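REQUEST ID: PR-0412
SUBMITTED BY: lab tech R.K.
PRIORITY: routine
TASK: structure prediction, single protein chain
INPUT:
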Amino acid sequence: MDALQSKASSAALAALQTMVDKANALQDSTLNDEIAAAQALLDDQDNASTTAVVTALLNLSEAMQALNIDESIDALKADVQATIDFINENILTNVDNVRPGKVDALEAAVEAAQTLVDDPDASADELKEANKAMTKAAQELWEIVTKAELEALIGSANGYLDGNYTEESLEALQTAITAAQAVAANDDATTAEVTDAITNLANAIAGLEQIMLDTSALEHEIELVTEMVVNIDNYVPSTVEGLADKLADAQAAMNATTQEEIDAATETLRVARLSARTKADKEALYAALEAFDLYSENDYTPATWAAFYDAYRNAADIYENAEATQEEVNAAVETLNTAAKALVEAPATQEPSANAQVTKKPVQSTGSVTAASDMTAAAAGLLVLGAAGLMVATRRRKA
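STATUS: complete
OUTPUT:
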């Protein structure tokens, strides 16, 4: 707090040095603590604040007066007068930012002390009490300076309460904040109380312990799903709908402040990843559609053509359906192959139709195929090639 207040003037430091010299001359061990505190300020004058110098001087003056064993009225009056002069010259000349009530209290204490000094009948006890009253009033004068710093620190400390810290360290900080707020709201708080509140609050902030969160599982899911999003066209659209948004949410959750948030984000992304389904391998299906392309209703009997054409149309629909499963694709290949093998050539007496149905293969997909063909699809493909060869040969003979 001393570093936060104004630097002590040369006059105040000189007055403190004079008081230390007087105390050392008494050679009384009971003054050692007060002398040491004052000397420390004199040894570090660049960092000695007005508050610290005034407090040290008044404390030393009061302690010296207590040593006046012979109750010398003249000596006591000289000490009291020195205190009065010091306050008038070094304190009451710099009270612009101090509450008027505190200034009034100090001026009243100084006036009462001066009255005693001027009173030939003043007792030693009265003079000592007057000096104590001035000391107390002077020390309390500085509380408005320290409170400004205290209130600023309270504001900063409140900002830490939402941080990612252990429960115990946050509780300690809240306790320090509550105590500091009470001191800040107390008009009668002393400089020592304000200083202690600031120290305790600063220590509580320094003592905050960061919570170490485990993000390894979330990082792994993000890595896997990032690859999926890059190759999003390889998946059935309905199963990866919103996957990019879920990935973005998971990446944002890397900055979460609780393990619960991170675990929840991990689970959400994992479910999304496991729900994704790769598109079916349609190579064998397209091979079948291509093999039976441009078949005409005029070349086959009505009964066998109807079954074949239905199978071909169904196979074409499944090929163009991005949501089709591998099982549906494999079944379409098998059905089409079976229907093609069952085709019977039209007899020569069958009248051709100008509006005859003709098979037409769909446009081949240019997207990557990532799903591996299973044994069923492979077997179906071989059957398609065999059947296609047979049917093409038949058509060529007819031609």
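NOTES: The mean pLDDT is 83.
REVIEWED BY: pending
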